[in-house]
Specification:
Blueprint: H1 3-16, E1 24-25, E2 28-29, E3 37-39, E4 50-54, H2 56-68, E5 71-73, E6 76-78, E7 81-83, E8 87-92, E9 103-104, E10 110-113, E11 128-133, E12 142-147, H3 148-151, E13 156-159, E14 162-164, E15 168-173, E16 176-181, E17 185-186, E18 197-202, E19 205-210, E20 215-216, E21 229-233, E22 243-255, E23 259-263, E24 271-283, E25 290-294, E26 301-302, E27 305-308, E28 312-313, E29 323-338, E30 345-360, E31 369-372, E32 380-384, E33 390-393, E34 419-421, E35 431-434, E36 438-441, E37 451-454, E38 460-466, E39 472-479, E40 487-496, E41 510-511, E42 515-517, E43 523-529, E44 540-546, E45 556-563, E46 569-572, E47 578-582, E48 588-595, E49 619-622, E50 626-628, E51 633-635, E52 643-647, E53 652-654
């Protein structure tokens, strides 16, 4: 159960259950009821909270006593609340060479509760404050170490309690279900010690920082670049995964540098995912909001993440990107930004890949640009600019030669084009737009587009057609003579102009229905109709056969080759299929070109005419003297004359 649900359960029981016998923990009298508390200022702990007395030992003794006392609400093992009455509790930072934190929590389901006090101003602290005295040689350890794997410190709530640390206020390590509720935290920026940050989260999940739990590394304007929050994937303490996930921050106004993600360990399951930021700002900063880097040497995956409701950086005049990825092996994905304010750049990819993003701008100063270090558009997604104009981006580094897949709801094929238009109630799309492949058309009846328009040179427009098309009327029937086990077999077929099926260009596939094999019928005879004429001549056909249904649009991983353009049958008796990796797409080629102030038609025109047999039916605009040797004529073109040459498939004729 999440801590929020647990708190609600506790409040319900506290309000409805009959008072219980008082609990005496180390002779400490506690409030009656199902959830008693330990007051750190009461005997035998006797913390003073007077801003001068060293309260370190008293507070640690109270924490230890609370963890040693177990009550319960239902089936949950509970501990007394550790209460901090109003005051400033001075504690001492351990000195080097010690690596110990100021405080260690050694149990789960524990609350540390101060009193709200203060006022409603933006940076007001609660009336209960823990403040560190650094000493002459302070170490880098946090005020609170919350370690789940070895100390069982999980499901911890810090509420109405401010912490002023030295190098770190909190380190959440290999834990889960930690909540900061109006629990502001700050440290001295620029300590030059390791991981100088208010809140460090390592290999942890389900962390909430809410309701003015502000993080500050810029006390007195000392460090506008020291990160406020640091997320790290590091070597596990035990068998836990190096994952930071399900992190939620809302209604926090931080001060200092932006947050950072650093992957420091390289197992394949190191992940940073499911972060949400609602109404968060960083003030007095010289950095962006969030940066992701990698020191592990293995791929990093970051996302999804959402930034919603007016998050941003102040001052707004700064030029740093809001979100940055700097990892040549990494990917940033599933990024949603709604009205975030910074400079002009919303997302910058210094190294790595970005896909599946949606950035929504606003009327005045919201960030909407998605770029690389040079200001070039990058990634795969959309950005909605001021007044609603939508920009669509397609990442060419993820594209094959011609990813023209036309399947709507194409969730597992990679890659796809930037935009598709699909009729309701139809599986396939009939129109698409892509910055690399132009405006694409189809009939909505096949897996890929088969015609299009594209500009390749200035003042021209090319008409494109699919280089190859798949066979039609593809089906199979069970027969004898094979070694197939009983079952249902599914297949797809596509066209190739190679001697095998491992490389493009190929066509998109056509699918067969399942063929049931049983008894003596232990083979399948497949038949098809050869495709209509295309710009390229097929060398044969490729079949992939599976024991499970093939999802249209899915990638192709295996094949059997049927040689010959006119081949229309294939007998499958159980042959071993060859490995391949292909996207289900048609390669597009330019077949006609329209040029400004001319009647140019044909894929290649001008100057020297190609072989007539390569362009049957083409009409070419001749721009200078060109001898058509087969007819013994000279077509004269140029600025003052216009001449056309016509190919009948055998020779060019001039007229």
């Amino acid at each position: 159960m999440k801590i929020g649900s647990l708190i609600a359960l506790v409040l319900f029981v506290a309000g409805s259950a009959a008072p219980q016998t008082k609990i005496d923990a180390n002779r400490q009298t506690n409030r009656t009821g199902p959830r008693p508390y330990i007051d750190v200022t009461s005997a035998p702990f006797n913390a003073k909270g007077n801003s001068s007395t060293d309260d370190t030992a008293a507070i640690q003794a109270a924490l230890t006593a609370a963890c040693a006392t177990t009550t319960s609400v239902g089936s949950f093992p509970m501990h007394p609340i550790v209460l901090f009455p109003p005051g400033i509790y001075r504690v001492v930072q351990p000195q080097r060479p010690s690596t110990s934190p100021v405080f260690t929590i050694s149990c789960q389901f524990l609350e540390l509760l101060g009193l709200a006090g203060g006022n409603n101003s933006q940076f007001s602290n609660p009336a209960s404050v823990i403040s560190v005295v650094a000493g002459p040689s302070p170490n880098a350890a946090p005020v609170f170490l919350v370690q789940g794997v070895t100390n069982n410190a999980r499901n911890i709530l810090f509420k109405d309690l401010a912490v002023v640390g030295y190098n770190e206020a909190y380190w959440l390590r290999s834990t889960s279900d930690i909540t900061f509720d109006r629990a502001p935290m700050s440290v001295t920026g620029g300590t030059k010690l390791a991981d100088n940050v208010t809140l460090k989260i390592t290999n942890s999940e389900e962390i909430w920082r809410i309701n003015e739990s502000n993080a500050d590394t810029n006390q007195g304007g000392m460090s506008p670049t020291t990160p406020t929050v640091l997320y790290t994937n590091e070597s596990p303490l035990s068998s836990e995964s190096p994952v930071d996930a399900y992190i939620h921050t809302s209604d926090a106004v931080d001060a200092g540098g932006g947050e950072e993600i650093i992957q420091r360990v390289n197992p394949s399951n190191a992940i940073v995912q499911n972060f949400t930021f609602d109404r968060n700002f960083i003030e007095d900063s010289n950095t962006g909001f969030l940066t992701a880097t990698n020191t592990s040497g293995s791929a990093m995956s970051v996302g999804p993440m959402s930034f919603d409701g007016g998050g941003g950086i102040e001052p707004y005049t700064m030029s740093e990107p809001f979100l940055t990825l700097n990892d040549s092996l990494g990917s940033l994905y599933g990024i949603t930004m709604n009205h975030v304010a910074d400079g002009s750049v919303a997302i910058q990819i210094l190294a790595g890949h970005l896909y599946d993003f949606h950035v929504i701008g606003c009327n005045i100063i919201c960030s909407t640009q998605v770029t690389d270090a040079n200001g070039n558009s990058i990634g795969t997604g959309t950005a909605t600019e001021r007044f609603g104009a939508a920009d669509h981006f397609s990442d060419e580094s993820f594209e094959s030669a011609a990813p023209t897949a036309g399947l709507g709801t194409n969730t597992d094929a990679s890659p796809t084009i930037a935009d598709r238009w699909c009729a309701s109630g139809v599986r396939f799309c009939s129109m698409g737009v892509d910055p690399s492949f132009g405006l694409l058309f189809g009939l909505g009846d096949s897996n890929a587009f088969n015609a299009g328009l594209k500009q390749t040179t200035i003042e021209t427009v090319d008409v494109q057609f699919a280089r190859l098309l798949p066979p039609t009327r593809f089906s199979g029937a069970a027969t004898t003579g094979g070694t197939l086990r009983a079952g249902t077999y599914y297949s797809q077929i596509w066209t190739t102009e190679n001697s095998n099926c491992t490389t493009a260009p190929t066509s998109s596939p056509t699918y067969s229905t399942g063929v049931v094999v049983r008894g003596s019928n232990n083979a399948i005879n497949y038949t098809w109709t050869v495709p209509v004429s295309t710009p390229a001549i097929p060398t044969g056909y490729c079949l992939e056969i599976q024991n499970s249904a093939i999802s249209p649009g899915s990638a192709i991983f295996a094949y059997l080759f049927a040689s010959g353009a006119g081949t229309t049958t294939f007998s499958y008796t159980g042959q071993t299929q060859n490995a391949t990796t292909l996207a289900p797409a048609n390669a597009m080629v330019s077949e006609h070109r329209f040029t400004y102030q001319s009647e140019t038609l044909g894929a290649t025109t001008v100057g020297a005419l190609p072989a007539a047999s390569s362009l049957p039916g083409a009409i070419a605009h001749v721009t200078d003297s060109t001898t058509v040797s087969a007819e013994g004529q000279t077509c004269v073109g140029g600025n003052s004359n216009t001449a056309l040459a016509f190919s009948n498939g055998s020779v060019w004729k001039c007229f």
